[in-house]
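Subject: mismatched residue count in predicted assembly?

I count 525 residues in my input, but I want to confirm that the predicted structure covers every chain. Input:
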Amino acid sequence: MQENDALNDKPTRNTGHAAVGIAAPVAVAVVVVAVWQTFVWASDVSPLVLPSPLQVCVALMTERVDLVEAAWCTTCAALTGLTASTLLGVLTAFAFSQSRIVRRTFYPYAILLQTVPIIAIAPIIVISFGRGFHSVALVSLVISLFPIITNTTTGLLQIDAGHLDLFELHSATWWQTLWKLRLPSSLPYLISGVRIAGGAAIVGAIVGEFFVGSSQPGLGSMIQKKAAGIAMDELFATVFVSTLLGVITFGTITLIGESILKRFFGMSLSGVR
Amino acid sequence: MVIEIDSLSHTFSGSTAPAVEIARLTLGDESFVSIVGSSGSGKSTLLRIIAGLLNPTAGQISLDGNSPHEKRHAGELGFIFQSPTLLPWRTALQNILLPCELQGGRLKNRQHDVNALLSLVGLSAEDTRKRPSQLSGGMQMRVSLARALITRPGLLLMDEPFAALDDILRLQLQEEVRRIHCEQNIASVLVTHNIREAVAMSDRVLVLGDQPAQITADIAVELPVVRNNDVRRSPEFQGLINEVTDALHQVV
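Triage response: the counts match. Full output below for your records.
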């Protein structure tokens, strides 16, 4: 009678995979930094062209207060844009899922969000809406909207045929099918979309700040300032923090998404297209 | 529940030939009927028509004089799909109670006592707190069975429910479904391509011919009510398997 669960039987293998997953990229980073440092020492290249990793580390320490403040500004703008794009993306996906005509009419415009370069859109937004936090958040929204629309639309449309039959068998209403089936079914796709959009939102905020300038003190405006001043070590430090911020955002969303999917769906993000 | 079919046919859109064509057929009245046929013969299509999930393009079908839609709207149909079709974000108990949530007031006290139902299908209270991903294939199928029975259906429809299970589990669930059918007096219709399964579980086996699906043989299974190992090893059981096999060979 009891042929119950045979799950969770591979913790050692999983732990080993996780260790390799962390150790391998760290090893690559160590090698790259070592080669870089050696190259700068050996070639005697000017610090105005290529600072050494040690010089960048020194810049990271001396500029740490400004960098943390700038990273916080960028994070706030990116999260505002990401929140707005998630809400707008889900509503748009819902509209797309309800009507093939709506989908066919407006989907090409959604693709435009992905294909038009953000570097071209950002100045238009800044000129149109003014220099400030809202413009940066808007650039972030524009760049992060498309993955949320496409993923959530896919999730809302790709419902298991058996589940649909089950709901029809029990005469479920449109609202019941939406609330109890379509929305929960699409959650893994939405999480996957937000994960992709998270990194894009950081890039969008930095690009937006780049065009807004000093009126919005974020990493983007800091990059612009350091590049203009040819402070290469500080510029590299700012780029490093920008990259780190993108990685942290991606990692945090992945962690939250994985725990939600594992808890409620018994699956991982790698199982979602 | 009695199923009456008269001049029924179904043609899928884009096709000229009907997938199913049944002249006249009466099923049910608390008996266990299996429909066997080769893959793609239209067995599942016929079952979906009986469940009201598919409308026939011609002809009539009635369940106790009502349309399938009326019966399923009243919660009088239970359906077990090929896969357990459990919602992964719900616990086993929440999955079992889903039909009651969806049909709400329409059930009019038809709901099965949950504890009695769990005992009937062999689930413990601890199992019901788990999510589908934490249950084995067999336990998932038991949850699916409990969900199909929660509304106390008069007709239980099964679309190859054991096809994905291993032999031991399949045998175990065949016996249990047969026992539940007898204890609960539910008319049952099983679609399967497994001849042994059809004979072991049924009071009557219908052989479906290929495209369009038509009833080509109607074989009464006159075996003891309890189909234990002794019955399964008996010459009568083997004789019935041979009879169904011959009928299927004639169709092919």
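The CA atoms of residues 214 and 225 of chain A lie 8 Å apart. Marking this ticket as 'not a bug'.
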